[in-house]
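Session log. Operator J.P. requested a structure for one protein chain; no other inputs attached. Running the standard single-chain path with C-alpha cell output.
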Amino acid sequence: MATLSTAASQTSQTTHRKTKSTLLAPLDVTHQVSSGLPFEASVHLLPRTVAAEVAFILPTVQAPTGLVAVLTAQKSLYELVEWGDEVAKEKDALLERFVAWAGKLCQLLMGQGYFADYIDPCSGLPANTDGNKIYGEVDGFQALLGYHTQNANCCKILLHPKWGSAVYPATLFTNAPGHLVSELVQHLDSDEAVAAVLHTHGQGRTAAAEAVTGECEGDPGAPELAPTKTLVGENLDSKLVIEGNHTATVFMRNNEAEWEEWRTYEANFGTFDNATFTLVHKARKGNLSQEVQQNVVADFDSNTFTIEGGGGWIEE
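Structure written below.
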C-alpha cells in the first residue's frame, strides 16, 4: 500500500530556471482538464543538445523552424517511485488526463498543417510517429526547466519544486511556431479563444506568403534558402543539422553518452546538392584549447553523412 506523498514538504521550494528557450513558463492549466490535482504546462524551444537527442526520437520529422516542446507536469497523490495497486490506478488516471489534453492540442496543430505528437509516458516512444528510441522525460525537464533529480533504486526521478517526486511528467513535440503553441496552451479550454488564435495565425501566414511571393517576383535572381535538414551519421551516434544555406552543426556522443557540438565555419549548401565541407571541432582542457579540422561529406539523397580524415590538432 502506497503512502501519501510528503515529498513536497521535503523538497526545496525553488522555482523553475528561466532560460532563453522558455517561451511559456509553467502555467496552471488544471481548469482545462477533468477534475483532479494540479496540471501544469510550459512551452520551450529546444537547445541544440536537446534538439539533437530529439532528432533520434523523431527521425522522420522535418522541422523547418525547429521543434517546440510542450512539457506537462501533473501532481500525484503518491510518490510515483512507489509500487502498488493504488499507485497503478493513479498513474492510469494521470495518463488519461494527459492523453486527452495533449490529443486536443495535437489535433489543433495538425489541423493547421503542422506535425504534432506526444511521447507515450508508458513506453517513452512517440505515440503516433515512427521511432524506436526512448525519450527521457526526466532529462528533458532537467534540461529545459532546470528541475532537480535524484536517484532511487537505480532510477533517476524528477523532483518538482513544489511537489517533489509526486509528479507525473509528459511531453509533446511540434514544429508549429512557438508563439502559436503558447497561445493555444493558454486558451485550450475556450473554443472561442482557440478559434480567434487560429484565425489570427492564418492571417499572419497568408501575409507572410504574399510577402515572400512579392520578394521573389521583384528579385528573380535571389538565392533559394535551404530549410533546416538533419542527416544521420554512419554510426547512428551522430547527427548533422543544417540550418539555412550557411551553417551546419554536427552532434556526436562522447564516452559519457552526452552530446558534444561540432560546428562548421560558413558553408554554402545551395539547394542541398551533395557537398563536402570543413568541420571544425574546438576542445578545451583547463587553460589549453585546441582545434581540429576534418572533412564532412554530406549525401542529401540518402540523408546521411560521413566524416573523413584530414587536418589534425592545431594549437590555438
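Operator note: Residues 229-315 form one domain.
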